[in-house]
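## retry 2 of 3
previous attempt timed out at serialization; input unchanged, resubmitting
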Amino acid sequence: MITMEKDSIRIKHIRVHRNGVCGYAFIAVHFLFTEDDTTHVLIGILTDKKDNCFVVEPKYPENAYRGDDFEPLLREAIEQWASQEKYGSD
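## retry succeeded, writing output
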């Protein structure tokens, strides 16, 4: 696991979703990740369980990203968002 710098990601949107009416809730985070002067558009999927973070690049789904590298910063962003928004509203 590597330590991410806060300025390497920029959050665009955070939303709570659920798989169906009684499905398991998850949080989707749309964010930008800058590495070596290249910016990637990524989606992070997190559940309420620690160490349960998945990161994909929709434009290039074959690219692999380690969710555990992004999880601390994404969870911090979710906490800030939840304290400012009506959690789960949409």
